[in-house]
């Protein structure tokens, strides 16, 4: 194992050379692809040596201005090629090298996915294709000529426009692509394969005709329509909401089966994990459809926020990712249910992001120190990054935010910039000071906001006291106050909205009042308040913080029944559930659903609230979310008992309501409308609770529903209910599903995941058996995520006291260490938090990590996470 050197954000240096254009010629071959890379380079400083990044390749030759260099003229290491002396004025550098795509199991650089060649260059994959200044602030114009066997690879694709093509006499053909937009190498893409193509057109608002092409494997064309429609919706939405229009004549998307992440926004040629493209009602659930829409949107929106304006260095990743996640969230909310989308986003933060903040890998949305960049494509950089953008939106309003966006684009189009540049554009466009707000970019950890309320009936005065505190995180012991927008409303006990006036409370466009907490502690006294109000605080989750506010059940019930915003009603129910669970855990008492709460839930079920909202309101927080309330000795079993008992009591008290929902459902053909999705969601929640309440009685009903299902949403829900509730029909359904879908890997992933996520004592054994399943290909990231990543999130079973879960995971991580370090590093995450568990588990996890740390050839991805985990105290 070689210790890897950390890079620091503060060490940034402007490049010493500029690469103005790159002319790549690639002869594709499975094991010996030949690359000629002709670059026009300009020195920017008085510097004679040039160090180019390059890994996993064989150098054939180097020429400067046509003159061959000898081995004395350069030095090669396993990471770089250094030319000792280069001209002090513009010159041409030609490098010829070979690479082995078939051996590339890391899926970074050029690799084979099934029968196709494809690339993944973000963050630092281009350096596995050829020697280059592989950093995002080097923007060059790319021309790419690809040659390959014509029969095997009829489609040869790269960025920009196809400008020339031809056939050779040896059965190969070639295509030349030119991308007029200067871009960093991480946005380079090359694809070759035998695809089916879905073609369509889009006319931009200024009249540009764009050819849209979606490339899928043979046989999958019928599953591509939805993604194409989502692409056109994205293009329209970005014009309407952000005034941003597409800038090339062609937009291509290729779906591949082997892909480490969701998708990649390469200029004009997105490469997608097939799970975010292929969708029809037989094989994709409602959630899958929504995910396709959101990821298609996300990658499309990067064309402006990421591609035309890119990151100066990788520490700035959230500049493009936080902003683009915010944009895709807004896209989904404008097209679908805003409240449901918001709740989904809140749940991601409260479970996964809070969890990351409490881990040894905690980092600010703009990290300061990185060893392996691939480890920083995190829920903090992406999702907390999006919350930070959302706070700016809350503070400035839609108009102010859009003015900031406009200025940002005007100032920085065509540049590689920093998060500070973005915030400066927002501040300047609104003539405001966001100096304090910028702390969100540098400070890691989850702030806690404590609020207390005191009402003086005689003086009719309400005093609200706010205090904030952020716990220390590795490398950041002392924390400062951050700028926290708190949206709030006040209601009477009858559920009427109350007017409140105070210089520090301003009316917000959402309908709430906005208070800005900028100090460690602040206090407001509000006059003329007629009665002690029921407060809704941190409405719409207006900041990514933990709220501590002791609210009586009776007040939460008022909000659940009356709040004007749906998210506030959902929050009221969550507040009740969380309090019940935490009380039961800390007092070691059995959990009991108070009668007024049961009544309030029954009333809610009878109101005309949106069906998807109802389904979410009756769903308590998960064990994973509750675990974030504990820093040490997480009482897994006690939380599990309390959550289960709460579910059981909801099932019991709402049995009649659930039975009515189930009985009244209409037998309609499958539709993908918002209301149909919402109804299915509520019906499946009802079926789950009915079966939980009376398993023996409902097993046959679940089996019948499964066998009659004409869509994957119904089929998957029935299977999940049967497996997770251990119904009598469980094995029958598992077998039927496997039989039906054994040749469809994306669908079979659901079968793997449902079993790996089941709350049963023998899940570790099940996972061990499933990994030997003939359809479990350990080299495909989707299979790993379905089986092992799902198992790692199954907290109670993964953390089984005998350590079986840890050993199982460690075996797979050792296998992946040399094969695919990115996937290995994802799987190690739950182990790195060993300090948060009881003594027995701590020792076992630590031992497993120490053994992994000693692996020969430990990948930097794993090394960084494991070292950090073992080092922190
Ligand atoms: N930008 C890519 C992520 C690439 C990850 C590389 N390890 C996907 C996205 O966020 O759109
Ligand atoms: Zn992105």
List the helices and strands and how they pair.
Elements: E1 7-8, E2 17-27, E3 33-43, E4 50-53, E5 58-64, E6 67-68, E7 74-76, E8 80-83, E9 91-99, E10 109-113, E11 116-120, E12 140-149, E13 155-158, E14 161-167, E15 172-183, E16 190-193, E17 195-203, E18 209-217, H1 225-242, E19 250-256, E20 263-264, E21 269-273, H2 286-301, E22 310-311, H3 317-335, H4 338-357, E23 369-370, H5 379-412, E24 416-417, H6 419-430, H7 439-442, E25 448-456, E26 461-469, E27 484-491, E28 506-507, E29 513-517, E30 521-526, E31 534-537, E32 546-548, H8 553-562, H9 566-587, H10 595-606, H11 611-617, H12 623-627, H13 636-653, H14 655-663, H15 674-693, H16 695-708, H17 712-724, H18 730-741, H19 745-756, H20 763-770, H21 781-793, H22 795-798, H23 804-819, H24 821-828, H25 839-853, H26 860-871
Parallel strand pairs: 2-12, 18-19, 19-21, 22-24, 25-32
Antiparallel strand pairs: 1-23, 2-3, 3-9, 4-8, 5-6, 5-9, 7-8, 10-11, 12-15, 13-16, 14-15, 17-18, 20-21, 25-26, 26-30, 27-29, 27-31, 28-29
Helix pairs in contact: 1-2, 2-3, 3-4, 3-5, 4-5, 5-6, 8-9, 8-10, 9-13, 11-15, 13-15, 14-15, 15-16, 15-17, 16-17, 17-18, 17-19, 18-19, 19-21, 23-24, 23-25, 24-26, 25-26
The structure holds (3S)-3,7-diaminoheptanoic acid and zinc ion (ZN).
CATH topology description of the domain at 7-194: Immunoglobulin-like
- Structural class assignment: alpha+beta
Tell me about the largest β-sheet: 8 strands, mixed
| Structure annotation, total helices | 26
**Terminal-residue CA separation:** 23 Å
The level-1 CATH class of the domain at 7-194: Mainly Beta
Q: What is the 3D shape?
A: globular
Helix residue percentage: 40-55%
CATH superfamily of the domain at 7-194: tricorn interacting facor f3 domain
Bound molecules: (3S)-3,7-diaminoheptanoic acid, zinc ion
Strand percent estimate: 15-25%
Mean pLDDT across the residues is 98
Radius of gyration: 28 Å
CATH architecture of the domain at 7-194: Sandwich
Low-pLDDT windows of residues: none
The oligomeric state of the chains shown is single chain
